[in-house]
Amino acid sequence: MSSLVIRIILLTVVVQIGCVANRVTCSLDGLYEHATALEVGVMMALFAFVPALFAIRVGQWVDRVGPRKPVLCGICIMILAVLFPIVFDVKTYGLWPLYAACMTNGLGFIFVQLTNQQTVGHLSNAKTRTNNFAFLAMGYSTANLTAPVASGYLIDHLGFQSAYYLSLASVVIGLAAFVFFIRSKLPQTLNNAKKREHHSSFDLFRIPHVRNVLIASSFMSMAWDLQSFMIPVYGTEIGLSASQVGWILGVFAMATFFVRLFMPIIARHLSEWQTITAAFGFGTLSYVLFPIFENFYALCVVAFLLGLALGSSQPNVMSLIHTESPPGRTGEALGLRTMLINLCHTTLPLLFGAAGNLVGAGAVFYVVATLMGGVTVFTSRCEKKSVSRNHSEPQDSDGQTEDKAPGDS
Questions:
Q1: Residue ranges of the alpha helices (H) in 34-95?
Q2: Is residue 401 helix, strand or coil?
Q3: Are 223 and 252 in contact (CB under 8 A)?
Q4: Residues 302, 293: contact at Cβ < 8 Å?
């Protein structure tokens, strides 16, 4: 792994800590000020929905101008987001600073996330791409584990403003690190291919290899949303304490980190599609097992199995998007994927909640397990139809891979 890729991953971790800490603090601050569950739900929906509206445009901009401007723009937007609840105290101004913070926080991070994902792929070659994406995904896991804990500790001992300052400090450190240690080393552009005319971003769905990856990614997002939303519901339904539910979710997060740590070894034995198929298979098994058990320790084991399955998928999906996308449209494909995922984050919790009220949490697990079983069959056939360039990418004079679309000469 090159030193620049390591710096990009560390930058992503630092900036995401600020992002996640701000999101968690906003939700808790709202609840502390007697906001309703619906009002807090709107905050979280804004965090996902607004980036969904702009994800494709951001990806296209990254394709057009390279990585330097989008990352700088994204970090500056995130600083603005953190400043809203600091400058406009919720006790005085009500909930609108929290709404503004969530909306701009999600928008700013999407600039950083999409750009860094594409840059890591561009700086990797056929042999290192999946491994590098695995380490990037480990960075996401690290931030998602540390930010809520740090925020909660600060809120309990020093108050909400201290948690907001943690977010601000993290993002400002990210800005300084980017300006002084990363920006000048980034490539001017991420696309070596000549610009080709295209129309709607949804035309990417017409390319079978890209469409297959986007479908798999969307269903994996569905599986991820189910565990984060329905495990607390199911745990409460069977009488688990809040701390026990928290431990089950924590075991899931630890498993995602664990499997990504060993992804370089897995990648030597399994292709991307084989790993994704295994992820759906073990995910199906996990969701079948969840409603069977009510014992806390058994549920922790099932959550760990589910974390291994879902955690292994993201690095391989990212690698496939980079290798299967047409030249000059990788960022656009990443933006389309992000849009689909954020739409899932916005709508699926509402659907899962309604379904849970009607048929019970256990039945929802079985329904999703059935869907994932069907997707397992689908992904098992994708590799046979895929024209992956993982083992045939020509290299340019700098040793970087030159991406070609399937079928291009």
A1: 37-65, 68-87, 90-93
A2: strand
A3: no
A4: yes
Q: What is the DSSP string of 303-359?
A: HHHHHHHHHHHHHHHHHHHHHHSPTT-HHHHHHHHHHHHHHHHHHHHHHHHHHHHHH
CA gap 267, 62 in Å, rounded: 28
Instruction: Report how far apart, in Å, the C-alpha atoms of 243 and of each of 146, 159, 232, 235, 246 are.
Output: 17, 22, 10, 10, 5
**Long-range contacts from 31-34, C-beta under 8 angstroms, 24+ separation:** 32/160, 33/90, 33/91, 33/95
Per-residue pLDDT of the chain (409 residues; tens, 9 = 90+): 789 999 999 999 999 999 988 988 888 788 788 877 567 767 877 887 888 788 878 888 888 888 999 999 999 999 999 999 999 988 888 899 999 999 999 899 989 988 998 898 888 877 788 788 888 888 887 887 788 778 878 888 888 899 999 999 999 999 999 999 999 999 887 765 445 555 566 666 677 777 888 888 888 877 877 776 677 778 877 887 766 776 787 788 888 888 888 888 888 888 888 999 999 999 999 999 999 998 999 999 999 999 999 988 878 887 887 777 776 677 777 777 778 777 776 676 667 666 766 777 678 888 888 988 998 988 888 776 554 544 444 344 344 444 333 333 2
CA distance 168 to 355: 38
Q: How far is residue 372's CA from residue 374's CA, in Å, rounded to a whole number? A: 5
Quote the tokens at residue 229: 């939303």
Q: Which two tokens stand for residue 36?
A: 């309703």
Residue 401 phi/psi, 5-degree rounding, is: -80, 145
Q: Which residues contact 289 (CB under 8 A, 6 or more apart)?
A: 302, 305
Neighbours of 203 (CB within 10 A): 13
Angle formed at CA 28 by CA 26 and CA 31, multiple of 5 degrees: 110
User: 252, 304 in Cβ contact below 8 A?
Assistant: yes
Written as six digits, the tokens of 276 are: 């994704």
| Distance, CA of 164 to CA of 354 (rounded, Å) | 33
What's the count of helices (H) and strands (E) in the chain, helices before strands? Answer: 14, 0
CB 302 within 8 A of CB 117: no
